[in-house]
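Suppose a colleague, Dr. K., hands you the sequence of a protein chain of 191 amino acids and asks what its three-dimensional shape might be. Before reaching for any lab equipment, you can write down a predicted structure in token form. Begin with the sequence itself:
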Amino acid sequence: MNYLVVGLGNIGAEYANTRHNMGFMVLDAWAQASNISFESGRYGSTAVISFKGRKFHLLKPSTYMNLSGKAVRYWMNELKIPVENILVISDDLNIPFGTLRLRKNGSAGGHNGLTNITELIGTQEYARIRMGIGNDFGRGQQVGYVLGELSKEEKEQMPDLCKRVIDGVKAWATIGADRAMNTVNTKPQKA
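The predicted structure, expressed as tokens, is then:
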């Protein structure tokens, strides 16, 4: 069984630790924990991780966030992966920082990367894990907040958040979306 797991973000050092790069951070943590490296390819960097008889093709698009669909469509076709085996990891300012939401499908919710993916693959019937980044910004400050660097407290929570998302992706592929949602869609534990 092949799966395409897409972590959304923007390429370039200036975006590396920003809220908009949560998807990249998760895939980087997974690759590091698995002792594998990403290889640059067409429209993105890819790596492959095997788990319980499944192959996860990790993709970090190099097309910038708003054109992520170009990379997803290319790799979906290249690897012959059906839409039901695609999961996208993105940031979401509509939910509090540390909260995760796994969905089997749905709208883009105002996220430009998800909007572009939906447009280019022609459906919104793909799974996604949305990572809450909160919305602690003033009127007209949304772009600066989303592209802003994570706070010290947020950075400290990232290793646990990445592990929770990785576990969620594995659960989605092994026990199914419905059962995985019961474990992924929980509020963060207070320390």
